[in-house]
Amino acid sequence: MKEKPEGKPITKNVDWVVVLIYLACLAIGWINIYAAVYNPEVNTSMFDLSNNAGKQLMWIGTAAILITCILVIDYKFYETFSFIIYAIVIFLLVVVLFAGSNINGSRSWIKLGAFSLQPAEFSKLAISLAISKYLSDPVISLNRKLKDYYPIIGIIALPALLILLSNETGSMLVFASFAIVLYREGMPGIIPAIGMIAAALLIITLLFVKWYIAGVIVIIAGLVIWLMPVMTRRRGGLWATILVAGVMIGIVFGVDFFMNNVLQKHQRGRIMVLLDPDSDPRGDGWNVIQSKIAIGSGGLTGKGFLEGTQTKFDFVPEQSTDFIFCTVGEEHGFAGTLVVVTLFVLLISRLVILAERQRSRFARVYGYCVAGIIFFHFMVNVGMTIGLMPVIGIPLPFFSYGGSSLWSFSILLFVFLKIDAQRPFTLSRN
Amino acid sequence: MLENRRFVIIGFFAIVGLIYLARLFYLQVLDESYSIVSSSNSIKRVIEIPFRGQIYDRNGKLIVYNTPVYDLMVTPRKAKVEDTLRFCRVLGIERREFDSLMNVASVYSRNKPSVFLRQLSKEDFASIQDVMVDYSGFQFVKSSLRTYTAPTLANTLGYVSEITKKQLDAQEEPYYRQSDYIGQSGVEKIYENELRGKRGTKFVMQNVAGVYKGPWKGGELDTMAVAGSNLYSGIDLETQQYADSLMGHKVGSVVAIEPSTGQIISMVSAPTYDPNILASRFFSKNYSALVRNPFKPLFNRPVMASYRPGSTFKLIQALVGLQEGVVTPGSGFSHANCPVGCHNHAATTSIALGVTHSCNPYFYHLFRRVIYNNKISNTFKASAAGLEDWHTRVSKFGIGQQLGIDLPSERKGNLPDKKYYDKIYGENAWKFSNIYSISIGEGEILITPLKMANVAAIIANKGYFYTPHVIHGVGDQKKLDPMYTTRRETNVDARHFAPVIEGMIGAIQSGTAKSARIEGITVAGKTGTSQNKKGDDHSIFIGFAPVENPKIAIAVFVENGGFGGQAAAPIAGLIMEKYLTGKVTNKALEKRMMELNLLNKVVLTPEQRAMLKSDTLRKKAPESNSLLKK
C-alpha cells in the first residue's frame, strides 16, 4: 500500500506554496500584533514576553514543535484515530463547562498557569476529521439518501451544543463552513442557496417594509410559474415554486421573532449596527466605526509601522486579536490589505487544488474542511472590520494573537499537508 | 460532475476576495473622510498661553506682573470623593456648589479634565495640595493672574477678564477662544496685542480616553509660546499713590504730564479701587459691586469726564489774544461796560495782572476784540468769522478733539464753532453778545482734565506739546509710536507766553492760587471754578513747575470742591512738591486735603443713595483672593 522511505527528510513532498504562505501570514501577523500593542511610553521589544507580540512569538515557536510532531507521526494516524480525537475534544468541551475559567462572559477557557487554552478552537479539527472519516465510507452518498446526513448533523451538533452552552457563539458559527465541503461532496446546491437567500432576506427585511418584500416575492413567484413552462417546456414547478415563495414569506415575517427571541441583545445590536453603524456610535457601533476609521485612514500606503494612531491609542478594541486587520489597514494602507487578502485567497485556492488531487476521499474531504474553515474565518473577520459582516468575535487565522487559535489552525493545516505529502504513496479508494 | 463544483467553490472564494478588495479600495483610497476623522480622534491642538507683559513705572519699579495661580481641574470619570463634607470644607465651598460644579464638569466631558475651581493662590494651593492627594481625579494646572504692586492706577491700567461672547464673535481672525483672557480697558486694552505675546501651539496625541500620549510627529509642527512685551510707562508710582491719597473721599481727576516728553507722570481717577480685586476669582462679584457704586469708580474721569474749564481757560484766551495782536502785554481793561461780574482786586493794567487776578471783564473785553478782529461791518457775520478764526487757534491746543492718548474712550469735549451756534440760534442770528460766556471758560465749552493738563504742558513748553501718553516704550527695544515723539505746535509765538506765565506766577504768589505755592520752587498756575447747576462748583487748577525748567505740568479737578483755590490748587501744589522734591513740607495742608471729604456734596439720585447703603466698596475691605475664610 505504501512505503515510508527511510532516511528521507520529513518535509519531503510537503507543499511549499502553502508553507510559504503560512510563514508569510505568521510573520506579517506577528509584526502587526507588535504594532497593535505598541505603547510609545512603555517601549518594550517585539521579543519581550510581557507583551502580546513576545507571547505570540512563543506560540509560533511551540507551533513549530507541533508541526514537527505532525510531520513525524504517520499520516494514517489521523484517519485511524479521527473518532478518538473527536471524542477527546468532546470530553474537553464537557470539562470546560464545569471547570473552565470565565473570560469575557464565556466559560470556555482552561487555564494552564499563565496561559489559557480554548478547547472550542480544536473542535474544528475534531469535526473535520470525524466528517472526513465518516464520508470516507464509499457507500455514503449525500445527493441521494437523507439518512446519510444524520451522522454528519450529529457530528457537528454535539460540539456545537456544548460550545453554545459555554456561550461562545462565534466559534459555533464557524461550523457553517462545513456547508462548503458537503456541497463539494454532493449536497444539492439548493441547500446553501437557501441558506444564503435566508440571510439575504433577513438583511432585506430589516431594511424595508415587510409587506413590500412579500409582494415582490409573490410577483416573482407568479412570473416563475407563468414563464417556467414557456422557457423550459417543463411542468410541475408550480408547487415547488409556491412552496419556496411561501417559505420565503415565512422567513420575512419570522425575522422579528428571530431577532427578538432567538438572538441575544448584543447579537441583535451587532446586526443592527451592520446596517447602520451610526445608529449607536458609542455602543454597538463603536467597534465598527472605529475599525473603519482605522482602515480608511490608512490610505494607499498607510501611516507607517508603529504610526497608527487609531490602533496605538486604543480607539479600536481587541486590536491584537479579532481586529488585527485594522492595524494592517491603518499602518500599511491598501497595499497591506491587498497583500493580506491576496495571501488568503491564494492559500484557500491552493488548498482546494491540493484537495482535488487527493486520491482518498478522506483526504479530499479533510482538505475541503480546512479550506472552508480558513475561508469562513477570513470572510467573517475581515468582513466585520470593513463593515460588511456583523461583529462576530472570531480570529483571523495565523494573524490574530492567541495560542489556541494559532495552534488549532497550524494543526488543521499541517495535518492536511502531511496527508497530502503522502499522496504519492496512497491508493485511491473511490 | 461533482469535481466541477470546485470551480464554483473557488469562484465563490475569488468573488468574496474581490468584493473585499473593492470595499477596501473604496474605504482606504477613494474615501478621504476617514483620515480626517482619524486625526480628530487622536490629534489634539493644545494652545499654550504665554505670560502677559509686565508694566513698569518711570523709575523701573514694577506696577503689574503675573502671579502663578492654580486652577483645580477635575476629570469626572476618575473623580472619587467619598467624604464630600471634608472635601467641601477643605476647598471652602458649599455642598450645593460642589454638586453644581461637578455637574458642569460632567456635562462638558466625563473623560476630559475641566476647570473645577479657578485661580487658587499659591498659599491656598500649598495648604490644600496635601489633602487633595486623597481625592483621585483632581489635578492642579498652573495659570497666571494679573497682580498689581500697589492698589492704584486701576482705570489707567484697566483690567483683564474673560472674553465676552460679543468680542468673541467680533474678532476678525479667530485668535481668541472661549474663556480666553483679554484686556478690557485702559492700557491692558490698548496694548493687548503687545501684552499678550505669541501663543504656542502644540499638537499632541491622545488615546481613546483623552489621555495625553506625547507630541505628534515629535513636535516638529509645534510653535513655542513667546511672552508678551513689557511696557514702560512714565508713571511715577510714588507720586501716583500720593495723589491717590490726596484725592481720597473726593470725586475728580489728577493728570500730571512731563512737558518735555508728554509722558503721563500721574493719572488719578477718583474714587478709585484696588485693581487686584478685578484680577481674582471673585471678578464678577467685585465687578458688579463697582458697576453699582454711585460714584462710578469704573468711569475713567481724566479722559472721559467733561467739565467747563472755568477761569483756567483764560490762559488760552490770553495767548490767542496776544497772537492775534488784539492786545499787547501792557493792555489793560476796567470792569466797566461788562455783563460779567468780578471780585474786588487791584486794577488789571496788563495781561499778567488779568491772569493773576483772573479778571472776568478783562477776558470779556479781550475775547470781544478777538471775535471782532476783522473788517466785516455786520456784527453777526463778523462774529461768525471771528469765532471761526478763534476756533482754529484754540483747536491747536487740542481742545474739542481727541488728543490721541494711549487709553480707550478718550472724549473730545466741546469747542463750539460757527456751525454749533448756527444750530442753536440759526445762521447769522447770533453775535458776540450771545457767546461771551465762553470768554471765561463757561458756557458751551467742555474739556477733559487730560486736555487741561496738556494746556499746562503747552504753556510750560512755550508753544508746543507732545501727545500725552502713558506708555513710552514697548518691549526691550522700548519702541514708541512716532505720534508720541512728534512735536505738535500751537502756532502761538513763544514770546507771547512770557506775560501769561508771569500772570500765572503772580496767581501763585499773590492771586487766586496761593494755596499751590511750593517753598523754594517757582510755580506757575491758574485756578478755575467750573459752574455746576446741580451742586457746588467744581474746583480746578492747572499749572507747572519749576517755571525755569518745567518738570511737571498738572491739572487737578475736584468735583464740588468750590473755588479753584480751595481744593484743586492745594492738591496740585502738594503733588508737584512731592514729585519735584520727594517730600512735602506743609504737613498741615497735606493732612487737611487728605481728610477733606467731598463725597457727601456729590448730588445723587434717590436710587443712587439707596445703592450707597449697600455699597461694599467703601465700607468693607475688598474681597481678597484668599480661599480660606479667616
From TrEMBL, chain A:
One of its GO terms (biological process) is regulation of cell shape. The keyword Membrane applies. One of its GO terms (molecular function) is lipid-linked peptidoglycan transporter activity. It is a multi-pass membrane protein. One of its GO terms (cellular component) is cell division site. The keyword Protein biosynthesis does not apply. Keywords: Cell membrane, Cell shape, Cell wall biogenesis/degradation, Glycosyltransferase, Membrane, Peptidoglycan synthesis, Transferase, Transmembrane, Transmembrane helix. This is Cell wall polymerase. It holds the Pfam family FTSW_RODA_SPOVE. InterPro entries: Cell_cycle_FtsW-rel_CS, FtsW/RodA, RodA/MrdB. It comes from Dyadobacter luteus. It is found in: Membrane. The chain crosses the membrane at residues 16-37, 57-75, 81-100, 152-183, 190-207, 213-231, 238-259, 333-353, 365-392, 398-419.
UniProtKB/TrEMBL annotation, chain B:
GO terms for cellular component: plasma membrane. Residues 50-210 form the Penicillin-binding protein dimerisation domain. GO terms for molecular function: penicillin binding; peptidoglycan L,D-transpeptidase activity; transferase activity. It is a single-pass membrane protein. The chain crosses the membrane at residues 7-26. It comes from the Bacteria. GO terms for biological process: cell wall organization; peptidoglycan biosynthetic process; regulation of cell shape. PANTHER family: PEPTIDOGLYCAN D,D-TRANSPEPTIDASE, PEPTIDOGLYCAN D,D-TRANSPEPTIDASE MRDA. This is Peptidoglycan glycosyltransferase. It comes from Dyadobacter luteus.
